[in-house]
Each structure stands twice: as C-alpha cells, then as structure tokens.
Design goal:
With 465 residues, the chain is of the alpha/beta class. It contains 16 helices and 15 strands. A hairpin with a 2-residue loop joins β11 and β12.
C-alpha cells in the first residue's frame, strides 16, 4: 500500500514499525459544541483507512482523543452555568451518536485530556529538565522552539504566513513558542492541581502525552505508525506535537503523517468562526447517515470537498444502484466473495485510498451483475456471490448494510409509514381470507400513493417508487 505522507509531500510505501501491525492516532474533537461535517469527513476518511487495513490482515490499534479542557469549553461553562463535566459528557455523547449514525467504528482507545493529566505532568517535567521549556513570571510554562533544531521540519510552515496564525504574546521568548501549562490567574478559574501549581494544560501537550501513555512503542525510533487529522491541524498543532515528543522522549512521534482536505461551503473552509458550519445533527434531519457517509467518502480524502446538495443527491443516485442490485439478491444467503472483485478493490485503495478508482470498480460490478441477472434471473449461485460482494463492500466502505427495501423508505415520515404498514396488514389479512379482489385494490391504492410492494418468503416489503 502507498500513502501520501504530508510531511514528505509525496506518496510512500506503508511499511509498519512492526510486521502486520499498525497503530493510528487521529486528533479528536474539542467537546464544547455539536460536531460539524468537517469532523464527519475526517472521521470517515480514517475509518476507511482502518477498515481497509483490517481487511488486509493487519492488527490495527486505533486511538482518538477527546479534548475536554479548553478555553472554548470554559467559556461554555460560564455561559451555561453548568459544570465542566456536564458540558463535556453531553457533547461527547452527541459526538458518538453522530459518528454511529455515519457508520464510523468506535476507536479502540478514547482517552480524555482530564483523565490523562499524569502523562502531561511527566512530559512537561522532562522538557523542563532538558532545558526545552521555561517558566514565565506568572507561572505559565512554554516550550522553547529554539531548542529544537528540527522545529518546522514536519510542516515546513514556519514562514510569515504560518506564524501569523499564532497569537503573539510578549511573555514568549520566540514567536512560535507555545504553552505547555497555563497557571491559574484567579480562584474562579477552572484549574487542576499539578507539580507546577494550580492550572491547566495547553492544547498541544495533550495529544503527545496521551499517545505516549496509551499507544506508543517505547523502544522504537517512532512511537506510532500513522498520525492523522484535518489539514488545518498540520501547523501549528501537529508541528508542536512532533517537536515536544522529539525533545521529551528522543523519539519521532509518527512514521507517517496523513491529512484530509477541508469541507467547504461556497469556497470557504468550514469553521464555526466563519459562521457557516453545517452541524451533522442538522444534516441527519434531512439525509440518512449512510447517504451522508457515502457522499463524504466519494471525494478523495486529500481533496477539498465543496458541500452542496446537488452533488449529494447525485451521490445518492449512485448508492441507489447498489441497493437496487441488493434487492435482486435479497432472497439468497451469501457465499464466497469473488476474489477478482476483492483484488480490484484492494488495488484501488492500495493507491493512497483511491476512492474514485474503487467506486468505479463497484459501478462496473453493479452494471455487469444486472446485465447477467437480466439474462439469468434464476442463477442462485451467482446471486450468492453478488450478495457476498455487497456484504464485502459494507465491511470495506461502511455502506450497503441496510435492508434494501427499507433503504428506499428513507424520507417518509413516521405517520405516513404507519398508514402504509396498516394497509399492508389489511392486504395480508384479505389474502389470508382469499379476498384477492380486496388485496388487489389495496395494492392499487398503495401504487397511487407512490408505494410499490413486493411479497417475499421473508414477508412483504415496500418502498417509494
């Protein structure tokens, strides 16, 4: 498999630190608000990577953190007069519900910053002892970027434009220096006890400390195989993670760095600060999670995705074709997957998760299967292979797992569903009583409502026409 290493700016062969084992860390959300489609895209991208590596036979350990202490969270606490734990637990729950709706697998390790303070204390103490960090007069502790000769070797963004993203502070020795520990300035602040006095950690320290505590190889050149996240985190966040890890532990943080592109609306990066954020919870009110997942998955992960409804609906039409094929093989049990189909998908995704190529393989499979079944509708062995291929698509891409008839019911409200199901029950009763004239009248009524029905050994199913 070849992946694009963001730091090297080129595709490289993925060679894990240890044979057939891959450890992945992806930056998780700061839990002070609902998740938006930018969070969704990053989660889906690395979910695809994880699923693919598992199906290729790797042992994958996947970790994603929750930042549950931050200025934005503290602001929310003051605004709502709720406790820190109430705020963060609520948004962690909401985030996990959104991810489940999008078919994203839960991480193997999900540490919270507030539960990992011991690891941060240890790392800060190491940096102080090595002279790579310094205290300010008011008790803050900063990382001294001048002590890391390789600073900016990761992102290569320490130019005027890059540094303009960092808030200036007269307490710092160097413009790029960043806070490891923020001392409490008054009794009302949300603070934690530490060897450095009451305060709270800076943002960058938590990821490095948690990786070392929960995921890292302690005896290798690199701590983990892949560090991932959105492109907006590359500098300064990931640059700072890499720097403090080098200086604290004499190790490189990650062997490979992968970053997904932005989600944009009208050409602007999706951001709460721009006021154009599209929350997942709002999108799920209109579109099924699987349809959203397929749409966000359909653009190569390194490209920006300009969110618009027209493209989303076109993406849905592509997914519809998969489910129409699934309807044709609904009455069979799966058999063995077609090895050539599996190999073609693997070859596509081995090319830096080339999703366009993978979806082309799936499109060709759907077209060929429909053509064959038109000529050979009773070939059960072929149907079994088709069903197995569809099930494999679900394992790999996380789409295609629904009952195909229920999939085509998406968008009908609950009251309408109850009305339809009541008519279907009346029809079943009429058939049982051999009142076929009434049963046919009910079928015609459903057709006028835009509903088609199909009787199968598993029962009667319906869908929108």
């Amino acid at each position: 498999m070849r992946i694009f290493d963001s730091s090297l700016k080129k595709e490289v062969e993925l060679i894990p630190i240890k044979d057939k084992e891959v450890r992945i860390y992806v930056c998780g959300p700061t839990v002070y608000d609902d998740a938006h489609l930018g969070h969704a895209r990053s989660s889906i991208v690395f979910d695809l990577l994880r699923r693919f590596l598992i199906l290729k036979g790797y042992k994958v350990t996947f970790m994603k953190n929750f930042t549950d202490i931050d200025d934005k969270i503290i602001k929310k606490v003051k605004e709502t007069e709720k406790s820190l734990e109430e705020i963060t637990q609520y948004y962690i729950k909401r985030y996990l519900e959104d991810m489940e709706a999008l078919g994203v697998l839960r991480a193997d390790i999900e540490p919270k910053a507030t539960q990992s303070l011991d690891a941060m204390f240890d790392m800060i103490e190491r940096l102080l002892e090595k002279g790579c960090a310094y205290r300010t007069d008011d008790g803050d502790i900063y990382f001294d970027t001048s002590k890391d000769k390789n600073y900016c070797s990761l992102s290569h963004k320490c130019d005027e434009e890059g540094l303009s993203r960092i808030e200036p502070n007269p307490k710092k020795r160097n413009p790029a220096d960043f806070a490891l520990w923020k001392a409490c300035k008054n009794e009302e602040d949300i603070c934690f006890e530490s060897p450095f006095g009451r305060g709270r950690p800076g943002w960058h320290i938590e990821c490095s400390a948690m990786i070392y505590k929960y995921l890292a190889y302690k005896d290798e050149e690199y701590q983990i195989d892949i560090h991932g996240g959105g492109a907006d985190l590359f500098f300064p966040h990931h640059e700072n993670e890499a720097a403090q890890t080098r200086c604290a532990y004499n190790q490189k943080l990650a062997k490979y760095w992968m970053h997904n592109g932005f989600v944009t609306i009208s050409g602007e990066k999706m951001s709460k600060s721009l006021g154009n954020s599209f929350f997942i919870k709002d999108a799920l009110k209109v579109y099924d999670g699987e349809i959203l997942r397929f749409y966000l998955l359909s653009t190569h992960y390194r490209s920006s995705l300009n969110f618009n409804e027209e493209d989303l609906l076109n993406s849905k039409k592509r997914l519809d074709k998969l489910y129409r094929l699934k309807k044709r093989v609904f009455d069979v049990n799966e058999s063995e997957i077609d090895d050539s189909f599996k190999l073609s998908l693997f070859e596509a995704l081995d090319d830096d998760l080339n999703i366009s190529k993978a979806l082309s393989v799936i499109d060709e499979f759907i077209s060929n299967a429909n053509e064959y079944l038109d000529k050979n509708p009773k070939d059960k062995n072929y149907k079994k292979t088709v069903k197995a291929n569809i099930d494999f698509i679900d394992k790999l891409l996380g789409v295609g797992n629904k009952n195909p008839f229920e999939y085509f019911q998406i968008g009908i409200d609950e009251n309408r569903k109850k009305e339809i199901e009541k008519l279907i029950e009346e029809r079943a009763k009429a058939k049982k009583e051999k009142n076929y004239e009434k049963a046919d009248l009910i079928r015609e009524k459903l057709l006028k409502m835009g509903i088609s029905i199909m009787d199968t050994p598993q029962g009667t199913f319906w869908e929108k026409i």
